[in-house]
Amino acid sequence: PTHGPSHPSPAEPLAAAAVPRSRGLAAAWLLSFVLLGIAVWAGLHWRAEVMQAWPPAARLYAALGFV
After folding, report:
1. DSSP string of 18-59?
2. Which of 8, 22, 58, 65 has its CB 3.0 to 4.6 Å from that of 12, i.e. a possible disulfide?
3. Hey, how many other C-beta atoms are within 10 angstroms of the C-beta on 47?
4. How far apart are CA 65 and CA 21, in angstroms?
């Protein structure tokens, strides 16, 4: 018989916590890529407005071949 409360092995809490963490991490990565894609689309869709509002952006668009 052991004395005191029994403690789970160190691997048990890690295994239980790994599933929700990996789902949360995957969701965070997916959301990051979606937001980045929206930002790129918006920058290309409204490039004339961006260049008018911020003239140095014209050099970036020209360097990327979008002018």
Report:
1. HHHHHHHHHHHHHHHHHHHHHHHHHHHHTHHHHHHH-TTHHH
2. 8
3. 17
4. 40
16 contacts 22 by C-beta, under 8 angstroms: no
Per residue in 33-55, pLDDT (tens digit) is: 999 999 999 999 999 999 999 99
Residue closest to 44 by CA, chosen among 56, 63, 61: 61
Greatest alpha-carbon span in the chain: 78
End-to-end Cα, the chain, rounded Å: 78
Cα 21 from chain centroid?
Answer: 15
How many angstroms separate the Cα of 49 from the Cα of each of 15, 16, 34, 43, 64? 51, 50, 22, 9, 17
